Amino acid sequence: MTTKDDRPSFTVENADIIYRNFSGLKTKFNAEGQRNFCVVLDEKVADQMKADGWNVRTREPREEGDDTLNYIQVKVNFDSARPPRVILVSSAGQTPLNVETISTLDYVDIATVDVQAVAYSWELRGETGITAYLKKLYVVIEEDELDLKYSGFNRS
User: Which of 13, 15, 33, 43 is the most buried (most CB within 10 A)?
Assistant: First the structure.
């Protein structure tokens, strides 16, 4: 799939996302300020994306009986000319998230996620690759009885 500006892209509906760092916290594997998360890919999609030059990673099974995990990191950049559209969906409606509020996604319980990312081709010291940047993200949160009770609360 490509976008209007002919950049390769991908969309995963009902995605599993792992390694959430929407706040951009410094960790063993992440520099301070770099917001990102990873999308789990099935084997067929992962193989095709690897062949196309995307930076797909593989984690070997940790325990006997586990499957190999294929995933791609998606960077979240609000400093670009086209910041991503990030929507938190709940029974109260849709809430757009921005650079100040996106860190909420590090902690919410997620029911479903739809992700759309675009490619950025890079070259460094003779090496090339494709990095995924977030274009759209719709996150439906898991709600309990209290969330539902107060979702339409109005004090008037």
Answer: 15
Question: Does residue 144 belong to any structural domain of this protein?
Answer: yes
| Count: domains in the chain | 1
Asked if the structure places residue 71 within a domain, the reply is yes
pLDDT tens, position by position, 96-126: 999 999 999 999 999 999 999 999 988 888 8
* Cβ 114 vs Cβ 137: under 8 Å: yes
* Assigned domain for 2 exists: no
Q: What is the DSSP letter of 62?
A: S
The amino acid sitting at 16 is D
pLDDT category, 3, cuts 50, 70, 90?
very low
Instruction: Tell me the one-letter amino acid at 122.
Output: W
User: Could you give the CA distance from residue 16 to residue 14 in angstroms, rounded to a whole number?
Assistant: 7
In this structure, are residues 38 and 22 in contact, taking their beta carbons and an 8 Å threshold? no
Three-state DSSP at 103 gives: helix
**What is the span of the domain harbouring residue 31?**
9-149
**Is 91 contained in some domain?**
yes
* Helix runs in the chain, H state only: 43-51, 145-150
Q: Are 39 and 74 in contact (CB under 8 A)?
A: yes
